[in-house]
Amino acid sequence: MKNKLLSLLLGAAALVGAISSCKEPAQPKTPSASVTAVSQDVSSAVFEVSTENIYDFAYLVTEAATDAPTEALFVYRDGVTGQLDESGHASVTISGLNPVSEYNVTFAFKIDEQTYFSAMLKENFTTKDVSEDITLL
């Protein structure tokens, strides 16, 4: 009788332990990304990249008259790979641009080492004229 009672108590304790250790499955973290134009001058432009649950990013600059890439693979292959800080942010300075010229910059993202994020972001910008950058004293 004692053995049956002991077995019953141990079984109940094991069942309670198993039930309490069951947790809700972790919800997948949704990746997100945004790009903000900070400034443009005669030969450069600065952008801020903000992400959540993104592994890394790449960007490709093209003249506005040129078709922007439509697939992340091409941005990573032909562009520049950027590094995010621990909070998922990065500052991108694009230099060597021509004055008074229109450009597109296309950003692509990866959610891990091999998987591209489905969204790509494109920003259009125009560099300034040389005369706009001169300050008379």
Structure write-up:
The chain is an alpha+beta fold. The chain has 2 helices and 7 strands, in the order H-E-E-E-H-E-E-E-E. The strands form 2 sheets. The chain has a 4-stranded antiparallel β-sheet, covered by helices on one side. Strands 1-2-5 form a 3-stranded antiparallel β-sheet, with no helix packed on it. The longest helix has 20 residues. The radius of gyration is 26 Å and the shape is elongated. The N terminus is likely disordered.
From the helix content, strand content and strand pairing, which structural class follows? alpha+beta
Please work out how many helical segments DSSP would assign: 2
Rg over C-alpha atoms, rounded to the nearest angstrom: 26 Å
**Number of DSSP-assigned strands:** 7
Label the overall shape.
Answer: elongated
Neighbour order of strands in the largest sheet: 4-3-6-7
Helix percent band: 10-25%
Low-confidence parts lasting 5 or more residues at pLDDT below 50?
2-6
Please indicate the percent range of residues in DSSP E strands (runs of 2 or more).
Answer: 35-45%
Span of the ends, CA to CA:
102 Å
Give the biggest sheet.
4 strands, antiparallel
